[in-house]
Amino acid sequence: MFARILAAIDDVSQIQDVLDLVKDVADPEQSQVRALHLRLREVSGFRWYSRETSKDASFIADAATFELRMAGLAAGGGVRYAAVDRVAEAIVAEAKAFDADLIVLGHPSRGEVLTRLFGSVTLRVVRRSSCPVLVAQPRRGAKKAMSPGAPTHESQA
User: Cα–Cα 20 to 30 A to 28, which of 65, 71, 79, 156?
Assistant: First the structure.
């Protein structure tokens, strides 16, 4: 089993997928888990700004840590800042600082075409990491978020 696991959580929609995978591979008696949420920052004009509040970012990390502890795992969590185009580097740096034996990531949020055009954080982490990387698959039956006014199959029937 893996002694030190870094669980990188992007947002609330992926939290359960990542944590379920961590619980499957972690040994409650030996594994230490760190839940990492990156608060992304962008430059607009001459200022840095973040899309989420620090309270929202802390909630994601705290919720992940709580669930891992309730599963009987030694867990800690934290929020780190990262520039939008440096997410993979921040994950790999955190894994190195934590001396992680395994990195667990959520599934890629971009489709195949956008991934080919712009790249993927997941692919960059897999290529740059010195330790194994597991990617959580979306749960079966999970529906993609739709806009509130978009027609659904149920409303058309």
Answer: 79
